Amino acid sequence: MPELPEVHALVSDLRSRLIGRTVARLDVVAFAALKTYDPPVSALDGLTITGVERHGKYLDIVAGDVHLVIHLARAGWLRWREKAPLATVRRGAGPLAARLVLDDGTGFDLTEAGTKKSLAIHVVRDPQDVERVATLGPDPLDATFTEDVLAGILTAAGRSQIKGVLRDQRLIAGIGNAYSDEILHVAKMSPFKPASMPPDDIHTLYEAIQSTLRDAVARSEGLAASELKGEKKSNLRVHGRNGQPCPVCGDTVRQVIYTDSTFQYCPTCQTGGKPLADRVLSRLLK
């Protein structure tokens, strides 16, 4: 799933390609991906793109007084297209969800792999008209996201597990499964640690959030969309590396499996050497 650093890089890349260009049309191929009807998709036709912004993990392409707001979800991606498409797209044709066509035929395709389709496209007059944008928590890279702000979020979350708090977009915008794993590894904290924690731990977590996200943004800056997935995967410390050695201590990275997701951690660095309970695996072993 693209998270804050990848969406940040997509915004930078798309700004250089889109601003000042004119939209010819937006072809929606996967009808279920379109979440709005007013204004219609055709409202984008003929408008000049004036901005590309980010709201958490949401892309916001501004054309006139219309916003094209996109959430790539777990398996969605954006592929830039240098040439005009050879044929008109057909609904239900493979992974293609939508196609933005500019006045010279270039543009980008929105694709989504797999059978579980969650990619979301909104055509709105204000990004705040998208409910999940309107309810986003503070952006962790914004200057207003201070250590005191984080402390308030954690105190309010109480005994909730810190892994879930970091992923909750209503509390902190932009951090998903992968970077929450990475942040907690840097902070040397268990994913199951309660959110309410002493000031020294809050400081450690705040520094881990800032360094992890800013380092990832710096690495992805200037990369094209086609390069971002590989860059992210090659620089992850624990996420997606179950069974591999921890790059810090050499212990074996372990994972916990949920119904529809997993997370990874290092026992030595994060849990005092103790493996965390994996309820799904435990049921299988009974």
TrEMBL record:
Residues 237-271 form the FPG-type domain. Keywords: DNA damage, DNA repair, DNA-binding, Glycosidase, Hydrolase, Lyase, Metal-binding, Multifunctional enzyme, Zinc, Zinc-finger. Gene3D superfamilies: 1.10.8.50, MutM-like, N-terminal. The keyword Lyase applies. It catalyses: Hydrolysis of DNA containing ring-opened 7-methylguanine residues, releasing 2,6-diamino-4-hydroxy-5-(N-methyl)formamidopyrimidine. It comes from the Bacteria. GO terms for biological process: base-excision repair. Belongs to the FPG family. PANTHER family: FORMAMIDOPYRIMIDINE-DNA GLYCOSYLASE. This is Formamidopyrimidine-DNA glycosylase. It comes from Pseudolysinimonas yzui.
